[in-house]
# Entry
Amino acid sequence: MFTGHLMLMRVLTLAALISLSASLLANTAVPGGIYVWAIPQGATTLTYADQPVMKVAEHALIGLPITLAPGPQSLVYQQNGRTLRHHFEVFDKTYSEQHITLENKAMVNPPAETLARIRNESTRQRRLYESFSPPVDLRGGFEQPLTGVITSLFGHRRFFNGQARNPHSGLDIAADSGTTIHAAGNGSITLSDDLYFNGKTLFIDHGQGLVTMYCHMSELLVKSGETVNKGQAIGLVGATGRATGPHLHWSVSLNGTRVDPALFMQVLNTITSASGGE
Ligand SMILES: [Zn+2]
# Structure
């Protein structure tokens, strides 16, 4: 009797938790956000825009490009030998403007002799973003890699010395030079190098098309090919590359698309904690 009562409590608590996570995740399908889908029983081979989709704790996570127009989207899956389509809605979101003055003109309009280097680095980074490697254990979720002052949010429409540039593709966290930066989650280092715009940079591949990037470091503490655990020290805060002061530029990329790191962390941590974190 008493045990039965406890069981009922457990069921109610789980139901409450699931409805809480459903409401937390209701408005994440925006340009630059994440569409979250509880995968129906028996559904396999999920794709979005012809690309494989990340699966965590029975949920599909899809990164939505910031340039995506609000409106209907769909993903494709297999169930009982049939190809089916699941439709969902992308809601509107307006990001604010940010004007930045850079003293170093070479970072606003790079000199001609650096253009080949910049192009090579951009190709190299795009390839890493577009990779889809085997799943990594992400049941512990993500943690913010640095505690500090948020100086620029994801999605800010940016102007460098009055010239329009692409929207801000990550989250900027300012802290004293030399402060330790930690891995957001488990994964492996796929890039550890000094890049023109991003300065001393690390890429962590978290499997299934989920990649995080850490830029402008003063020192890199890990090498390409190394495996890292969530919370592990990976580098030190600096101002290398295109930076106006010491800070970390942190990007989260899903299915080749840069998404809002704060929103992604909320989504992943909600899903992994609602699943019981086994
Ligand atoms: Zn940034």
About this structure: The chain has two domains: 2-93+268-274, 97-260. The chain has three helices and 21 strands.
